[in-house]
Amino acid sequence: MREKAEFVSGRVSVVTPVYNGESHLAGMLDSVLGQTYRDIEMILVDDGSTDATLAVAESYREKFAARGYGYRIVRSDHRFAAGAINQGLPYVRGEFLIWPDSDDFLEPESVAKRAAFLRGRPVYHCVRSLSYYFDAETGRRLDRADEKTGDLTKEDLFWDVLESRTFVCCGCYMLESRYFFQIYPDRRIPEYPVGQNFQMLLPFLYRHRCPTLREELYGVKRNLKALPL
Questions:
Q1: pLDDT by residue (tens digit) across 65-106?
Q2: Torsion angle of alpha carbons 112, 92, 186, 106, nearest 10°?
Q3: Which of 1, 33, 182, 208 stands the most exposed, by the fewest C-beta atoms within 10 Å?
Q4: pTM of this prediction?
């Protein structure tokens, strides 16, 4: 179902797909609840999970209500990340949009600092932060990163992202919603089984500059046991 409404000034929409995330979803939701920013709506898409993900999600309704944040759970058949994102995009009402992974972590000022940047500099419609990596088992920060940082002074990032010269890291980017939905007026991105970040970012970065905040505002979980030696 597609709903029509104006974007709410100052609001940040968080769209997160989750599949079989009962063991890690709480950490991400807690990090959203821990934001210093005042106006957030959480749109969580359960991508046909077969574990207790939905029960974990439901257990957070009162917590989000108490925090004064919007909270919506969208149930979907298993369609992978891009398909799940598409189930959540019709409900976006925020002026700004982020889409963190369900097993990652937003630092307390992650939303506030990026939103403040965009609201204070209307010439920009996109901003990103740096990230850090942490061990899924211990929470210890890791020195290694899977993506290149690249030239942080650059703002035209289309080719750098396309050719893997800089990081894609989904939770680092914040987009201005109305410009994103000018690209995707039907509120649907192309669906592939390999992910959603290129579909979200590349058309936007082709049209708009994206500066980088030199702060690690987003944590990426890595399972060291699953990584090759």
A1: 999 999 999 999 988 899 999 999 999 999 999 999 999 999
A2: 40
A3: 1
A4: 0.91
